[in-house]
Every structure is written in C-alpha cells, then in structure tokens.
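Forum > Structural Biology > Help requests

Title: Can anyone predict the 3D structure of MSMEG_0569 family flavin-dependent oxidoreductase?

Hi all, first post here. I have the sequence for MSMEG_0569 family flavin-dependent oxidoreductase but no way to get a structure on my laptop. I'd be grateful if someone could post the structure tokens.
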Amino acid sequence: MKDLAPPHVPVIIVGGGQAGLSVAWELRKHGIESLVFERHGRFHSWRENRWDSFCLVTPNWQCRLPDFHYDREYGGTDPDGFMVKDEITAYLDAFAARTAPDLREGVEVRRVAPQPGGGFVVETSAGAWAADQVVIATGGYDTPIEPDYAGDLDPGIFQMHSVEYRNPEQFPEGGVLIVGTGQSGVQLMEDFIRAGRKVHLAVGPAPRSPRRYRGRDATDWLYEMGHYAITIAEHPDPVKALTQTNHYMSGRDGGKEIDLRRWHVDHGVELHGSLAGMDGTQLRFLPDLARNLDDADRSYCGIREMIDAHIARGGIDAPAEPPFARVWEPEEEPVALDLAAAGITSVLWAIGFRPDYSWIEADVFDARGKPVFERGVTAHRGLHFIGLGWLNTWGSGRFLGIEEDSRHLAGQIAAQMADARVGA
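Reply #1:
Sure, ran it for you. Structure tokens for MSMEG_0569 family flavin-dependent oxidoreductase below:
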C-alpha cells in the first residue's frame, strides 16, 4: 500500500502570535488560504512569559495590528496610556476573534524541509503537511540566555531567568542581583524596590530614552519626525541598529524614564559594572560602570537634542526643559563582590534570548545563525520571516510596524504564487 501524500495547504505559518496571525489575515485579503501552527496557545509569550506587573513601554496608540488599531477599530480609550498584561491579551484576543485564522494550537513544528520540485514538507507533532510557502513567525525568544559561568555559582544562591519571573515573592528573603539593564532588567529592578528588597544591578551597555520631553512623550516626537519610518537599508549605522539593545524606559504609573543614577541615590540600588564571572559566592565585574552610565546618558541627551532640533526647525510652540544634570558619579569601581557578605541570596538573569532555527533545513542563515532576508523574503523561494526586529524599520517586531510588514509580505507571497501558476 502506497504512503498517502501529506495534506496540502498553500501557506503554512509557524507561530501563533501577533505576527503570524497578521500575515494570515493579510493573506486572506489576497484570497490565499493559510494554516497557522502554534506549539503552545495563541499569544503564549504575552500570557505566560510576562511578569505580573508587566505593561507596554510604548504608548497604546502604537498598537496597530492590521485593520485593528487600538484607538480605531478596537475602540481603545487611552491612546497615550500603557496597557498592562491582561489588557494586552484582551486586545490580541479581540484581533484573533475578528480575523478568525485557521489556527492549530498545541502543535509543534519539528521540521521544515524544502522539496526538490519546490514547496516544503512541514513535519509537526500532529503529522506532516505540504505547503507551497512557509512563513516563520516564531520571533527571537526561544532560548533564554544564561552565561556558562552561571553553573559556577554557589548552589545555595537562588537563580532564575526573567522568562520565569512573575513577582518578587518567588525569591528567598535577602538581596537580589539583577544582571542586565535592558527594558526587562530595569523594570524588574523597580518590582523588587517596591517590594522593599535590596537590589544590586549589573549595568550593561543598554541605552536609555526620555519618557516625556517638552510636553509630549518622546516616542510621539520621534514618530512625528519620521524616525520610526527609517528602514534598515537607509539607516546610517545598520550594524549598530541590528545589535543594539532597546532603549530602556517604563510605561508604569503612566510612563516614566529610568535614570539609574537617580535610582541609586533615591532608592539605594547598588550599581556595578558588567558581570564577568562567578566562582562560588565570589563575583567579578568589569570596570565599565561609569562608561555604561555615560553612554546611556549620551543616548538620552542625543534624543533630546533631536527633538529640540525638530522643534526649532518647525517653529513649534513647546515648553522648555532644564538641561540634563547627573545626580551621581561612581567614585570607584570595585570589580569583585562577595554575595554572602553583601547579603545577596538570589540572581535574576535579564540578558535576553536567542532564537532556535535548527528545525529549518534551508540555506538562509548567516555564519551566526541569523536568517538573511530582504523585508522578510529570503533567497530560498517560498521561505519567509516576520516579526523580527528591523525586518524593515524600528517598528518591525513591534505592534507599530506589524501592519506594514505583514501587508508587504503577503503581497510578496501572492506575487510568488502568481508567478508559479504562470510558469506551471
């Protein structure tokens, strides 16, 4: 008896987050059938991988899923606010209900294999499918990053990665060392301070941004200036854009900027340089705290200067702001710390994630394992990516840019499929 051919679908989308469902909606508008596989449940990372106090860092008006903007089709009433976790998932669920994708939850894609005659076999935990086109919408947050030397830490010290963090009550009594000062690290710092805990922070090279400046949210000014419309091809320093950590600030309590110097002065946060190693309870740091703080401030002031120049060019009536002033400078930079002596009982890793594309059998990755594409379209016909940072602009991979990216990609898929029909 011959083996039955796997069922065929024109487009398979791997990943049931906002990027995958946005592409499915845009494909439907082209009359193209798609099937979405999600190994957990829809919007899993928003429901399960965010902490209890999580809220957006960018204002709600930037939530612009295709044909479903927060302050238009969704009917949101606080465009300048910052949705908390449950509000975000409610918005996403409403989008899914409106677009009704063919979504198979709890199905893990284990292999995507190009076929000699074109198309792909997609092997899943629920069987195999054939597809003409495949869209990878899994994002870049597959594997939590912890350094190898984390294994050298005294086993009596509690460790956790931010992906598992929900609230400070998960941690034993005592001080906590948070490693990483991207958007996650600085917000978790505040969580512990509010809980009355002693916080030590290993400060990395992440830049920071103003929150409100000269009467408006800084992101409003940057959007008006066209800053977020700059493509990666137009960017003056694309390597920096692709590798730089996001600017840190917060949407909590209506939005605030984060100045680590002030958190040291006002809340007693102990600041250290980049973590370099561990041995038992002994930690080593690089002597780069002052440089990292200065670099973050340079980024902060640079954004203010861009806004000032925009206001001056346009003759815009906007309130003046006092010049930036540092409230604290490190007098010395100790490169060693004994956790036991400092009363630190926990380490919280907030240094990011790396993607896992080992299940994709196509030659579309560079030497570092990152996919190579032009606006999501790879050199291997029919294989595409969506929902990654700087797919095209800063907004790619965020709510702000997903409408444009998914619309463009759906158009490219439709064109490739039309070409295939003509050539058949």
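Residues 289-314 form the longest helix (26 residues). The mean pLDDT is 96.
Shout if anything looks off.
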